[in-house]
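Researcher: Structure prediction, please.
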Amino acid sequence: MKLLKKIVQILLRRNPSNLADLCVVGLGNPGDKYSKTRHNLGYDFVELIAQRFNTQFSESKKLDASIAEFNFGEKSILLVKPNAFINLSGKTLNLIKRYKVNSLDKVLVVHDDMDLQPSEVKLKVGGSDGGHNGLKDIIKTVGKEFVRLRFGIGHPAIKADTNAWVIKKPSPEEKKLIADSFDKAIFALDDILNLEWLLAMNKLHSK
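Model: Predicted structure follows.
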């Protein structure tokens, strides 16, 4: 029976109907304490996508995350908010790689980025972690061949304040600028959901 169960699990894993065409993973820290903080922009943006497509999040033990699903044309889209803290994001990405996609280029990780200013948003394929602890854990766990959607939060005035900076809520002025960056990303959303990365980049990176 154990062998049969293992065979069924392998077949389900390989069944294309069980896979997503795109997994959009929003990084953030769980819990009310961290809600709407700078480090949780990934959570916020995937929640915005869910609202746009009228889908609800539910818990997935298999992925150790909250997930929401919808179809965009012929594509199956999976939205993911890992349950682990942001510096342990690699765990859920490993489960996504194992169960939900057949390659990492079908994973879009949405995250905050101190190297960009509020209102800036960039799309990037592959690359280093840029000092982001969530990306660092993901790259260490599954590799770097995933796509990143980066929302700017800027740097604190004093470098030593970095850890406190990311887990604080942005100022009212910053909130407006971040909302602008979300609007820019929504403008490119159709291309993003179609995995048309170059088209999305042209929209996001043009002045």
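Model: The longest helix spans residues 172-187.
Researcher: Thanks, that helps.
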